[in-house]
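Slide 14.
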Amino acid sequence: MNKTELVSLVAQKAQISKESAAEAVDATFNGIASALQSGDTVRIVGFGNFQVAHRKASNGRNPRTGEPIQIPASQIPKFKAGKALKEAVNS
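Slide 15: predicted structure.
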């Protein structure tokens, strides 16, 4: 499912226009992104948690040349599914 299909599904389930559904989906994604940028964890009961993880700096290799390179430390978003979502997927 892509974003357009998600917007269509939200519009159908909520019985609203696709434009309103697109605004709601965008607002949800933007809210999650801004919370993660602030370092907060987003907990959606029954769905899961979005959080920021810290990745340490490491050594790697350039796949084209085989030359060693330094990969800098970074922050990455992570999602951990909640119990209800796991059960829904496995039923």
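Speaker note: Strands lie at 42-44, 48-55, 58-61, 68-71, 74-81.
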